[in-house]
Specification:
This protein has a single domain, classed as Phage tail protein beta-alpha-beta fold (3-Layer(bab) Sandwich). Helix content is about 30%, strand content about 25%. With about 120 residues, the chain is an alpha+beta fold. A 3-stranded mixed β-sheet has the order 2-5-4, with helices on one face.
């Protein structure tokens, strides 16, 4: 799964229905955000085309599905849903000197940054 989540998706349980006929994935994501009254920021590198009928029941599961199929990463910061290609990310190895891995995890959880996924 390619997703990071800064804030829980406590969005209303309202349906999102979308029919795409070679639409841009960016348009699908913007319509998805509009359905939940959430601003969406989509990377210019997200330039895939989509076709099909989309009827997701759960917003997070739908985003996870799109992330898996289109190699995306997404996170919601409480105000804006950010979506970009997984290839745009970097990984770095951090050497912890002043705290243990357990302490770092505890700090990330207490500040609301940690995502169990």
């Amino acid at each position: 799964m390619f997703s990071v989540q800064a804030t829980e998706l406590n969005w209303p349980e309202q349906p999102f229905r979308y029919y795409a006929d070679n639409d841009s994935l960016k348009d699908l994501l913007n319509n998805f955000g509009a359905n939940y009254r959430v601003s969406v920021s989509v990377s210019d590198k997200v330039n895939d085309r989509v076709s099909g009928r989309f009827t997701p029941e759960d917003p997070a599961e739908f985003l996870d599905y799109l992330a898996q199929v289109y190699n995306l990463m997404w996170y919601f910061d409480g105000a804006v849903l950010h979506v970009y290609k997984a290839t745009e990310t970097r990984s770095r190895l951090l050497q912890l000197e002043l705290l243990t891995a357990r302490e770092l995890r505890s700090t990330l959880i207490s500040t609301g940054v940690w995502d169990a996924r």
